[in-house]
Amino acid sequence: MLSGLADDARRMALLHLLKDRAPDRFAELKNRLYAPENPLELEELETEVARLV
């Protein structure tokens, strides 16, 4: 479904899904969005969405 999107668009769509359907987990992860020392990788985000949504 999202595989046809560019990485940035896929990341945004996954974040919206996570925020809508697993807001507690989104809140835990959102601080890592811009953290250069431990960034939230696309693969990790995909795994979280698959597990929680």
Topology summary:
Elements: H1 7-21, H2 23-29, H3 42-52
Helix pairs in contact: 1-2, 1-3
User: Main beta sheet, described?
Assistant: none
- Round the mean pLDDT to the nearest integer and report it: 90
The helicity comes to: 55-70%
The helix/strand order is HHH
Low-confidence stretches: none
Strand content: under 5%
- Looking at how many chains there are and whether they match, the oligomeric state comes to single chain
Distance between the termini: 14 Å
Mind telling me the C-alpha Rg? 10 Å
Characterization of the model:
With 53 residues, this protein is an all-alpha fold. It has helices spanning 7-21, 23-29, 42-52. It is globular, with a radius of gyration of 10 Å. The mean pLDDT is 90.
Tags for this model:
globular, mainly alpha, 53 residues, single chain, 3 helices
Q: Could you write a compact summary of the structure shown?
A:
The chain is built from 3 helices and no strands. With 53 residues, it is mainly α.
